Structures are given as C-alpha cells and as structure tokens.
Amino acid sequence: MTTKPTGVSLLRDxxxxxxxxxxxxxxxxxxxxxxxxxxxxxxxxQMQRVLLQLGQKPTxxxxxxxxxxxxxxxxxxxxxxxxxxxAHFLPLVYTPTVGExxxxxxxxxxxPKGLYISIKRKGRVRDILRNWPxxxxxxxxxxxxxxxxxxxxxxxNGMGIPxxxxxxxxxxxGVPPQYTLPVLLDCGTNNESLLRDxLYLGLRQTRPGAAxxxxxxxxxxxxxxxxxxxxxxxxxxxxxxDAVRLLARYRDRFCCFNDDIQGTAAVALTGILGxxxxxxxxxxxxxxxxxxxxxxxxxxxxxxxxxxVMEGTSQENARARTWLFDxxxxxxxxxxxxxxxxxxxxxxxxxxRNFVEAIEGLKPTAIVGVSxxxxxxxxxxxxxxxxxxxxxxxxxxxxxxxxxxxxxxxAYRWSDGRAIFASGSPFPPVRWRDETLVPGQGNNxxxxxxxxxxxxxxxxxxxxxxxxxxAARAVAExxxxxxxxxxxxxxxxxxxxxxxxxxxxxxAEVIFKRDLARVPKPADIAAxxxxxxxxxxxxALI
Length: 542
Description:
Number of strands: 14
CATH class of the largest domain: Alpha Beta
CATH topology of the largest domain: Rossmann fold
Low-confidence stretches: none
Mean pLDDT: 96
Shape: globular
C-alpha cells in the first residue's frame, strides 16, 4: 500500500499539493501547520493571486517560465488556470511562446521534466524508463528535437515541445496528467551554435545516420511496449524524412502516430471542410496546391486523398487534384530529386519554377503553406488566387509567427477582403471596410488531444487515419453559421474543451466500429467519454 506524503514532502508533490488552500483540518492531520501561512485560501483567491502575479510579468517568455513553475508546484491550480480561459493561456504554454522557450531552454530551465534518453545509453532504454515514478503511462510524446516548429535543429532544447503538447492533452481534452510522459531522445545536434553554448544541456555530438537512429528508435519503441503495454506514442518534431520512414515502420505494430504528419493533416482537413461550408462544393471537387513538400505537406495530401476516397471518388482522381511545390519547383514526373513519399504527387506536367505561374496554370481553389518560408505568400500570390477564385482559400500554416507565409491582414487586403484565411500561428481580427474579419488558427491542438482522449478512454490498440478524419469532421461541424459569417472556419479556442470532448466521442465511434478498443462498447459513447475527463479539482487527502 502506498503511503501518501505529508509535511514538506506533500508540499513538494505537484499532483497533491494544495499550497495555501489546505484546510485547517488537513494542516493538522498532514503535518503542515507552520509550513504554510496562517490564511486559508479559497480556490478563487488562489486564482486571483496567480493572475496578479502573471500580469506583472513583462514578456510572454517570463509568463511561460512562471506557468512552468506553477505546474511544478501545484498541478491542479495550473490546469484550473489554463482551462479557465484557454484562448488566453494556450498561446503562453504552447505556440507561439513555446518556440522562444525552446530557443532559450538551456538558459531558462528551473526543474527538469520528463525523461531524457541519450543515444549513448543504447542497450539501457528500458532501465531508464523504469526511473519514471508512474507505472501506468498511457501517452508519451517523444521528439529528437531536430525540427522544432519552423526553428530547425534545437537538440535537447526541443524538450519544451513534448512538455507543452502533453499539457494540451489535459487542458483541452481532459486526459488525466498522471498518465502522460514527455520524452527527449537525445541524439545530439547539428546546430553548431548549441554545441558551442556552455549552457547547452544536451549530448554534445553531431547526429547519427539513419541506420543508427532507427536502431535506437527500435529499442525505444520495444521498451515502451514492454514497460507500458497500453501506451500510445506520439512522434513530434522529428526531421521530415525520419518522420515519414518511422511512421511507416511502426504504425501497424504499435499504438502510435505522428502529429506533424497526421495531426497537421487533420487540422488542415478541418479548415478545408470549414471553408467549404462558406464556398459550397464537395471536397473531391477542389484543387489543392501546397508550398512545401516535406512530411507535413505530403501528410496533408495523403489525408485529403483518403477523405476524398471516403466521399466516393477514386484514389487516382483524388491524388490528381493535389499538387506540391518546393524549393526546386513543382513536383512533376521529370524530377529526379524526389523522395519515395513525394513521387506519388509528381504528376505529368511541364516544369514550373515560379509559384505564381503554378497558381495560374493549375488553378487551385486552396493554397497551403507548410514551407516555413516567411512572406512566401506575397501580394502576387494572393492576387493570383483572388483572380481565379471568388473566395480563395489561403492557409499559411508554418509556425512560429515569424515563419508564416503571410499575415491575415495581408491575405485580406490583397484579396479585397475575399480570402478565407487560417494560419498556424494566431493573428488578431482584421477590420476590412465596414466589417471585422476573424482569422482562424489551424492549430493541431484541435485534433491530437481529442484523438488522445478517445484512445485513452477506449484503450485503443492502434491509431488510424480514419480516426483523424473523424476528428476533423467533428471539429468542422462545430463552427456556427454566425462564426462562418465572420470568416472563422475553426471553433473559437475559448470553447476548445467542449469542441474536443465532442470530437473525442466521434473518434471513439471509429475505434469501436473498427474493433480497435480494448474495452466493451458503451450504450452512450459521449457519456462514456465525459465520465473519464480530468477535472482540475483538489483531492481529498484525509
């Protein structure tokens, strides 16, 4: 039987600590008298104090640090704060602030979170997993830190991403935080500035080749399966070629998914479905042009293809409606520099090296930016889309904000206010003539927590693309007509918990339909999900 901590040990346990909210009776019974101030706070008073302190921080990075320390001290209060106003607090714990936090990670770290598993520990990965105190882990978000947002190779500094992602699992979809584990597979870094930084905390060597990385990843996945047999692994911010290769390697053997491929694809599909509620027409009648042909671009193209096939069109016709463009121009059949995962989108066409020419020749209804090239959707690009579409769909999805292909104001201004816009990073509403246009944020936060909650509740054996399509359709359905009238194609983040729990139930339907659940199907799936949601409430300790 596990004995709950008392005294100072209890105050240092973020999961059980109530800080100044311990009652008089609890203080006496748990050895806390004198260890906290005499006043007993209500939960409302605690929130007021946190908001006051947070408001005194001069920058978003300082607010990120404060919130990280709050999570280390009082996990319940941390989640109560986040869930009280997600539209305000999510950008502080994740994008865009997490990008700056990762750049500064070795300089701002206070207390390590999660597990750091170095490639020099090969052969001992399962032993390291056993150092984690929780014996029942249901979700691991794992990164190598090689492609953090649009910032590149940040090595061990990338640990801010798994930490932030798992906070969103809980804050946005109610996954209980005790079942989550952030992991950094430290394979070194090719970032010379980090290797020269005396405060860098990662392995000081360059990255290995693909064969050695795969061997390390194989050991990690086998160790997770052995140590946590009901765990789902989310791959996050791996280099594109590694991401594609390893997803194909593991997706049919383990419960896992890649958020940069499948999550990004699903949130893009959500945006397209929302846009079509404004423009009309079927998904299979659209034409798509991507700027960026890496794992994110091809992942979106793959999921769009699958969704179009589910509408009744052939896979050949679906792929023919999707075009990709990279640094070397349009992906077409004469190109000899393409990876295998890109070749299925290299259609027969004359070479095109100019993106505006590609728009004019292919006449897409939507352009999607996953290039991380800031301002790539310039005035000529937006004007070309506006010439061929009454309501051009413009999605600059690259993160962080400094890498966005265009701003909301630019897209609206250059399209004479006709663009249907969504971006990866948040932009404020734009006043255009006599109306206010509200840009959407195509953030993966709409998708992966809902999938995660469904996987947790059903104890799913695998994660499939159909589950992501189900999540995308569920999220798109929840945009109201009034919101569509302002140009908004994603539900407001202020209602994200309701959005995610609805989507989780829809994903769970797919899991039960495909016989992927380890639990019996309930009569009421929505109620089944609601009964398993985490609530940021203090535990009764006596």
